[in-house]
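Training component of the fellowship. As part of building independent skills, the fellow (R.M.) carried out the full modelling exercise for a liganded target. The chosen ligand was adenosine-5'-triphosphate. The inputs are recorded below so that the supervisory panel can assess the work.
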Amino acid sequence: MASLSSSASLLFPLATTTNGGASLSSAIAVSDNKAFDSFCYKPKREQRRVVCACMAPPRNVESDGFSATKFNDTSKSENLNTLWDPEDDQDVLIECQNVYKSFGEKHILRGVSFKIRHGEAVGIIGPSGTGKSTVLKIIAGLLAPDKGDVYIRGRKRAGLISDEEMSGLQIGLVFQSAALFDSLTVRENVGFLLYENSNMSEDKISDIVRENLAAVGLKGVEDRLPSELSGGMKKRVALARSIIFDTTKESIDPEVLLYDEPTAGLDPIASTVVEDLIRSVHIKGEDALGKPGNIASYVVVTHQHSTIRRAVDRLIFLYEGKIVWQGMTHEFTTSTNPIVQQFASGSLEGPIRY
Ligand SMILES: Nc1ncnc2c1ncn2[C@@H]1O[C@H](COP(=O)(O)OP(=O)(O)OP(=O)(O)O)[C@@H](O)[C@H]1O
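Fellow's submitted model of the complex:
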């Protein structure tokens, strides 16, 4: 399978489901298609599977989370393995154990280990090219580690994703890169999964699409083409698409969403909207219609301070293929780790060299 493109600036949700249909592996091929702008609607069985979402205002989001006064809680250790009790792994949804990944001579990941627990909102940060997106793709099962293991709810995953292997957990990857299907309307984009894989009537799908769009703060755009939307609107449409659900099916599996730079290229206000949407689809959030979100946990790769502050609770800092720091978001700017200090301040002086 070819690698994923991450150069474009739009969110593109791809997700696994365990209820049959195409696997994530086949969905990936969509993102590899260089002709993002000329996607055509294909007959049902030729299409890849896409999963969508709905959003809302977050609870308990601090508006000034990075002010100095907020970072005096250093009581929690920054040591790498102290944020969870190793005896209590019942709630671990995803675990990477000593993961290595190289591309040719480039040794990108060099022994990465971490856990994502039920209910967590985790950010992966670190300098460019350090392997953050690679970690997401490995978690999603789009790339296989060269060495090390990925556990999904305690079950070791062998190689790349398959529907069988993913049984028990649904994982969606929302790319910063493309894309909405340009030849489809907003309604068709958001309702894509349901049109393709459910037995719902068109009217019912239209209703759900309208609800999901309303949840992300968009009204009356169903008949527009993506080319008629602003960049921020496209991201919201893509987010709406990433968590749309077939309401006729009872899913008992928790769902994890992985966001790759969801706010890249957005203005500060549009970023805030997207950050709040990410919060709102989480089980600890609620959407614009007041409904709790469905996403059990999520992981966000980001460079944006606003996104770190507003959208995640815990941070994993990746540098030169290793996790060099983990901590709660509020510990980030008071860390004594020189790598973290340099990154947080944007200083040219320090251990990180460009
Ligand atoms: N499929 C691939 N083939 C070859 N090299 C790759 C592939 N995927 C990633 N890389 C390389 O691996 C390194 C890490 O890439 P990755 O996208 O994971 O970094 P990142 O930390 O997300 O970077 P950024 O913050 O700039 O998005 C880069 O040098 C990239 O060029």
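The panel noted the following from the submitted structure. Residues 3, 103, 106, 108, 128-134 surround adenosine-5'-triphosphate (CB under 6 Å). Residues 27 and 49 are 5 Å apart (CA to CA).
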